Amino acid sequence: MGGAADKRYSLGLNMSNGKCYWCAAPATSREHVPPKCIFPELGDTVDGRNHREQLITVPACELHNVAKSHDDEYLLYILALNILNNSVGHAQAATKVLRAFKRAGGLAARVMGTTRSVLVEKIGTGKVDQTVAVKIDDTRLSNALEHIARAIYFNHFGKRWIARVRTFPEFLVLLDLPTALDRNERFEALRHSANELFASSERHGANQDVFFYQVLEDPNDSSQLIMRTSFYGSTRALMLFTLEEPGPQSA
Question: Which pTM does this prediction carry?
């Protein structure tokens, strides 16, 4: 381990293509980041473009790829159903997600079984529309986002992040709780702050209508890093990389 100049690299280990991006176990496959299901199939696109070119992949063990396929599927449903999405996201909801929902049983049907009717007001116009809210499985969503954060970090820096990653989905709201209004206002303030913070930050990704990410490092402390991921235009999540003790490892 080196001094201050080597601090970024002291957080990870040199990795070959034969080691998993998360746990350094022998890799059995290459994982798409984000999951390939997030990217529309050619027949489901609204513009005829191939959104599955130049996808990011990282080496992964069985546990950190195939074993989490249901979490990837869950992430697709939650992201594609977001009202803030661009036309690509709405097309995913109207095609791939709708097909999954129409199949008897399965994860999509269980997700849709948690919906409730809500009224939303459009900012600027004051127009009120009726839509549905989906109850979130926080553990499953956090797990899916953390896998993406760690894999993107590995691909971007060529190193494994071995400390803690905290994820903050920006697209969620609270309902019913006595403190919901106050907490939702704080979430909105966080989103505005993130917009300002990342306004001039470079966007990375070959299919940015579907996904891109941005990275900011603390100029005074290279052991702290913030990543922002954007799905379908405006469905975003913040990832905070810190040297706090990590939670229980899954490998």
Answer: 0.84
Q: List all residues 6 or more positions away from 24 whose beta carbon is below 8 Å from its beta carbon.
A: 13, 15, 160
Q: Please count the helices (runs of H) and the strands (runs of E) in the chain.
A: 6, 8
Rounded Cα gap, residues 194 and 169, in angstroms? 12
What is the token pair recorded at 131? 């839509």
DSSP H helices in the chain: 69-80, 87-92, 98-102, 106-112, 138-157, 180-197
Dist. CA 227–CA 48, nearest whole Å:
30
- Tell me if 194 sits within 8 A of 228, measured CB to CB: yes
| Residue from 173, 200, 176, 203 nearest 186 by CA | 173
Torsion of CA 57, 142, 46, 155, to 10 degrees: -20
Pairing of strands 221-231, 211-218: antiparallel
Q: What are 50-105's pLDDT values in tens digits? A: 899 999 999 999 888 877 888 999 999 999 999 889 999 999 999 999 898 888 67
Residues 6+ away with beta carbon under 8 Å from 158: 15
Q: Who wins on pLDDT, 230 or 63?
A: 230
Question: pLDDT at residue 248 above 50?
Answer: no
Q: Which residues contact 141 (CB under 8 A, 6 or more apart)?
A: 74, 75, 78, 169
* Tens-place pLDDT, residues 171-216: 988 887 788 888 889 889 989 999 999 999 999 999 999 999 999 9
Q: Are 121 and 128 in contact (CB under 8 A)?
A: yes
Strand ranges for the chain from DSSP E: 29-33, 56-60, 115-121, 128-134, 164-169, 211-218, 221-231, 235-242
